[in-house]
């Protein structure tokens, strides 16, 4: 459990401080404003504050007082984690690192005057701005679904209440009922995420509702760790999962949330629970800042600065950076490059060549973890892959158990790296 | 520190989490590699990538803490991963992207931590 009474008090104190001073402090120090407190935003805020040792004022704008990590939220669905174990507060960032944590929505950005407007009415000035807003959904991406329908057919791709809702709906399925997932097209947050989710839901249903069926409608012909997941589904959840890829009409989908039906390539199926994961785009604040090209915000690989406005850096899922997958690990890695570059620009500290890395662990069943990873370098064109690996099918139980235990260690590590 | 104790120490490094992927092979490094003086500032930057998994508070939870280990121990461990004398895929990949100077920088930095 990551939230305790001490951190709650710290968070409350931070909020009080931010309410009392809606404008930035007139300290004369360089100012960095970070919008979004996830794997990219929390990390960049912490590293700039930590490594500048007070020479830079850092403000973090994040509407949620409790952050639920999207990574490991599938393990909550599978019953391997409770929700509290993926919940984190911003108290340490305020109390231990002196970050001005503002729980508000950024609603406008003026790159000319270098200001961020908040929904609560305040304005923040910046010398450098970091946008790490994660994803929003593309309107109309799945015929019949919009945000009004997310209570009947949750996306559960921003962790928290949506994840709780999906878990409750799965638990309420009748014996032998049908669960459907509408998987997203590329590119999207956490490439193995939908398929780890299928594994975790199958794990849960196998115990509580073993005659239930799982249908996946997928607009893609293949997906991340496909061989590993399909091996796992065959070995552990035989006959339960029906994956329908694009070659078999998986991309020709519509849903009716009122009737609880899903139509795949013209064939309508009544479902008892349905998870719609629509096509994604950069968090909307990137559009409002005028730094998007299509659905994403292009950045320089050297410092994650926007190709439209070099005083704005974009991290994680929202950025179009090249070869890195959209993952929490990637956002965390990019945040460290951006933090170093921003400190260099504002205080003259030494800047080293950018290096990036990513590993995505997924759980297939109890003590059965798989992973994929790569290292990357900055080129003038993009973040370019250097080397990589992926787990192999047919690995021993010992290797899979070690991989799972490694993922648990990584979760503890990255969340400490984000929130202090 | 003798070569034998180097090997024992480096095999132990990271070992608590990776028993299933451990390989113990004879592995030696030339004195020219072991004598490189690591750049602490560069090591601090490079270490930020490691600290996504190896916790800054040095706690062991699935992945071991590595703060305060001997420089030679860390240099050996990273070269062993780089040359695939140890079998963890993540560590082979991470070390595989490091040059001798970078490994020395990382070793100096982690050795300087408590």
The CATH topology assignment of the largest domain in chain A is FAD/NAD(P)-binding domain
Shape of chain A: globular
Looking at CATH, the homologous superfamily of the largest domain in chain A is FAD/NAD(P)-binding domain
First CA to last CA of chain B: what distance? 21 Å
Give the neighbour order of strands across the main sheet of chain A. Answer: 5-2-1-9-20
Mean pLDDT of chain B comes to 84
Structural class of chain A: alpha/beta
Broad structural category of chain B = mainly alpha
Tell the overall outline of chain B.
globular
Characterize the structure shown:
The complex is a heterodimer of chains A (420) and B (114). Chain A has 420 residues and is of the alpha/beta class. Chain A folds into two domains: 5-136 and 281-352, FAD/NAD(P)-binding domain, CATH 3.50.50.60; 144-278, FAD/NAD(P)-binding domain (3-Layer(bba) Sandwich), CATH 3.50.50. Chain A has ten helices and 24 strands. Chain A has helices spanning 5-20, 41-52, 73-78, 91-95, 161-171, 193-208, 226-236, 284-288, 328-347, 397-419, and strands at residues 31-35, 57-61, 66-68, 87-89, 100-102, 106-110, 115-118, 123-125, 128-131, 135-137, 178-182, 213-217, 241-244, 253-256, 261-264, 267-270, 273-276, 280-282, 297-298, 312-314, 319-320, 355-365, 368-378, 383-390. In chain A, strand 7 and strand 8 form a beta hairpin. Chain A is globular, with a radius of gyration of 21 Å. Residues 1-25 of chain A have low confidence and may be disordered. The model of chain B is unreliable at 1-21 (pLDDT under 50). Chain B has helices at 3-12, 31-34, 40-50, 71-82, 89-96, 100-112. In chain B, helix 3 packs across helix 6 (100-112), helix 4 packs across helix 5 and helix 4 (71-82) runs antiparallel to helix 6 (100-112). Chain B is globular, with a radius of gyration of 13 Å. Chain B has one domain: Orthogonal Bundle (Cytochrome Bc1 Complex, Chain D, domain 2). The two termini of chain B are 21 Å apart.
């Amino acid at each position: 459990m990551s939230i305790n009474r001490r951190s709650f008090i710290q968070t409350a104190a931070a909020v009080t401080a931010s309410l009392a001073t809606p404008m930035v402090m007139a300290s004369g120090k360089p100012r960095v404003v970070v919008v979004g407190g996830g794997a990219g935003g929390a990390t960049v805020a912490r590293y700039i504050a930590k490594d500048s040792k007070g020479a830079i004022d850092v403000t973090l704008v994040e509407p949620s007082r409790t952050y639920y990590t999207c990574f490991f939220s599938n393990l909550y669905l599978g019953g391997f984690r409770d929700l509290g174990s993926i919940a984190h507060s911003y108290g340490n960032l305020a109390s231990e690192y002196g970050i001005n944590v503002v729980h508000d929505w950024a609603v406008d950005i003026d790159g000319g005057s270098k200001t961020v407007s908040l929904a609560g009415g305040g304005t923040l000035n910046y010398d450098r701005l970091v946008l790490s807003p994660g994803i929003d959904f593309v309107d109309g991406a799945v015929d019949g679904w919009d945000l009004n329908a997310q209570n009947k057919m949750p996306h559960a791709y921003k962790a928290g209440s949506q994840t709780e809702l999906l878990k409750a709906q799965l638990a309420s399925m009748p014996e032998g009922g049908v669960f459907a997932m509408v998987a997203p097209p590329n590119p999207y947050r956490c490439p193995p995420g939908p398929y780890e989710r299928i594994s975790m839901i199958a794990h849960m249903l196998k115990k509580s509702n073993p005659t239930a069926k799982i249908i996946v409608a997928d607009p893609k012909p293949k997906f991340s760790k496909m061989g590993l997941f399909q091996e796992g589904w065959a070995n552990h959840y035989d006959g339960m999962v029906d994956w329908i890829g694009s070659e078999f009409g998986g991309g020709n989908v519509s849903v009716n949330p009122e009737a609880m039906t899903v139509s795949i390539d013209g064939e309508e199926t009544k479902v008892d629970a349905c998870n719609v994961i629509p096509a994604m785009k950069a968090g909307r604040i990137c559009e409002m800042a005028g730094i998007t090209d299509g659905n994403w915000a292009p950045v320089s690989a050297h410092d994650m600065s926007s190709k439209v406005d070099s005083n704005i850096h974009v991290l994680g899922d929202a950025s179009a950076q090249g070869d890195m997958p959209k993952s929490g690990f990637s956002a965390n890695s990019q945040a460290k490059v951006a933090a170093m570059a921003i400190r260099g620009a504002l205080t003259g500290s030494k800047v080293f060549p950018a290096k990036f890395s990513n590993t995505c662990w997924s759980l297939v069943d109890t003590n059965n973890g798989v992973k994929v990873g790569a290292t990357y370098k900055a080129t003038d064109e993009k973040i370019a892959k250097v080397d990589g690996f992926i787990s192999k099918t047919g690995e021993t139980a010992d290797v899979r158990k070690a991989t799972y235990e490694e993922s648990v260690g990584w979760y503890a590590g990255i969340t400490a790296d984000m929130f202090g | 520190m003798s070569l034998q104790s180097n090997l024992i120490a480096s095999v132990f490094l990271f070992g608590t989490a990776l028993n299933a992927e451990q390989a113990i092979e004879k592995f030696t490094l030339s004195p020219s590699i072991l004598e490189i003086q690591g750049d602490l500032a560069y090591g601090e930057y490079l270490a930020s990538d490691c600290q996504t998994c190896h916790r800054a508070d040095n706690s062991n939870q699935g992945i071991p803490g590595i703060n305060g280990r001997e420089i030679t121990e860390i240099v050996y461990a990273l070269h062993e991963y780089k040359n695939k004398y140890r079998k963890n895929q993540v560590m082979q990949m991470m070390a595989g992207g490091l040059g001798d100077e970078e490994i020395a920088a990382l070793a100096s930095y982690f050795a300087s931590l408590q």
